[in-house]
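Listing S7. Sequence submitted for prediction.
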Amino acid sequence: MYEPIRSPSVHTMADPTRAAHGPARSREQELDIRLAGHLTALLTVTDELRALAPSAGLDDAARRLATRIERLRGGDAPLRAVPTILISDPSRVRALHHRAHMLAGQALVVASSRGDEEGMALAAERLRAHDEAIAPAPDGPTGRPGRSDPSGLAGTSSPSDA
């Protein structure tokens, strides 16, 4: 009625000797690799922002990111790319801040997972800095209220106040 199985099961290990040695890397090593990757991506975006909109804050952030990446990689300096497009378009700078904000958030999650206080502090600082850079001004160019008053009712009185 049933034909016997002629091939090995997909549930068996391909190399049984490998299973006896355990995984190649520990969870902490995997998290270190992931955190270094997120911080390296954040460093790349920071370098591009530094080229388009230079500031001492970005220079300091890039230096601290590179130092942290070196520690995570055991002394290996991160590769640094030279930005290719040097046209300071405000929409491009804003898009880079959005990207950096997302990368800092991912780095914060991984740093939290591994219990890395220094990595968490650095990622949280960069998250706040990029959040401030992309936040609209309280009374921005559109004349609408910013984050401080999403209702648009600041300074107005209601009929019940009279």
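Caption to Listing S7: primary sequence and predicted structure tokens for the chain studied. The radius of gyration is 24 Å. The longest helix spans residues 27-52.
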